[in-house]
Amino acid sequence: MKNLQFSAEQIIKILEQAERDEQSISASCWAHSTSETTFYHW
Question: What is the spatial distance between Cα 18 and Cα 20, in angstroms, rounded to a whole number?
Fold first, then answer.
């Protein structure tokens, strides 16, 4: 099984940042070195 780069807590924090509009989704993904596809998969 593939190791996860982010813990569940980290994923929640990233999603909450995007929900509060602190950053655009693309900027948030870039800042956390993940793709938008992964973001929408979460």
Answer: 5
Tokens of 32: 């956390």
pLDDT digits (tens, 9 = 90+) for 8-24: 999 998 888 888 877 78
DSSP-H helix ranges across the chain: 8-19, 25-31, 36-41
How far, in Å, CA of 28 to CA of 34, rounded?
Answer: 9
Q: Are 5 and 34 in contact (CB under 8 A)?
A: yes
Whole-model pTM: value is 0.68
Amino acid present at 38: T
The tokens describing 12, both together, are: 């929640």
